Amino acid sequence: MHMKKYKYLLLDADGTFYDFPSCENIAIKRLFSNYNIPLTDDNLRIYHSANSALWQSFEEGKVSTDEIRVERFRPLMQKYNLEGQTKAAGLLYCQYLSENGILFDKARWCLDNLKKDYSLIMITNGLKEVQYGRFETSNTTHYFDHIVISEEIGVQKPKREFFTHTLNIINALPEECLIIGDSLTSDIQGGINSGIDTLYLHLNSEKKAGSYTYDASSYEELLAILND
Q: In this predicted model, what pLDDT tens digit does every residue of 82-104 receive, in sequence order?
């Protein structure tokens, strides 16, 4: 298959270039320590369960980012009779997250190579203060000609409007763009909804079936596809 020549790469952040679980682990440990909450498997499960459900609801347009900031800690804070501090804990957690910009191995090398031939556009559903902080601390902001954050434009991936808005910002046609991401429900579905080609990057997980244009399991494979 010969690669079409794209001008713009619309890049997802977490799970694609940024190691969010490592960043999250550091922030969770700091937060639990701050509130004297034991770092047990059960407490981590309570948090992750609430967080995952909220992000899924956000993709579906059912909750706001402000609700995610606060509500993901409510079950855990209730367990320890700290419910009155739920909002403060949520904001502190975002601060801790924003201070950690951890990239996957070879991610910077890959971005360096992509930057030579393409205009790189960051597209993320992440919370704005968290994402800007992490791009800054990881010294990666300069890679992106534009950073499009769902919270700032008022619509999230995978909605077609998110991508229409992004194309308007960069003044591009759908066929000039390629979405690169790890999420079938957010990035790949967004491409399907908006008529933009997609590359499903499954670095640390098993390949899932889906309607993507290309797929790669490593940065080397990603670059090989783009250089075909």
A: 999 999 999 999 999 999 999 99
CB contact set of 171 (below 8 Å; sequence gap of 6+): none
Identify the active-site residue in 12, 14, 19, 182.
Answer: 12
Model pTM score: 0.93
Cβ-contact 123, 148 below 8 angstroms: yes
Instruction: Give 27-73 pLDDT, tens digit per residue.
Output: 999 999 999 999 999 999 999 999 999 999 999 999 999 999 999 99
Report CA 96 to chain centroid distance, whole Å: 17
Dihedral (C-alpha) 31, 37, 38, 42: value to the nearest 10 degrees? -90
As a whole number of angstroms, the distance between CA 144 and CA 141 comes to 6
Q: Is the link from the previous residue into 158 a cis peptide, with omega within 30 of 0?
A: yes
Task: Judge whether 73 and 51 are in contact, CB under 8 Å.
Answer: no
First to last CA, the chain: 8
* Cβ-based neighbour number of residue 208 at 10 Å: 11
Instruction: Tokens for 174, please give them.
Output: 């759908």
Q: Residue 96: CB partners within 8 Å, gap ≥ 6?
A: 26, 27, 30, 31
Whether 66 sits among the annotated catalytic residues: the reply is no
Residue with tokens 């597209």, as numbered in its chain: 123
Please name the residue that has the structure tokens 């609700």.
Answer: 67
- Cα–Cα dist 64/57, whole Å: 9
pLDDT over threshold 70, residue 3: no
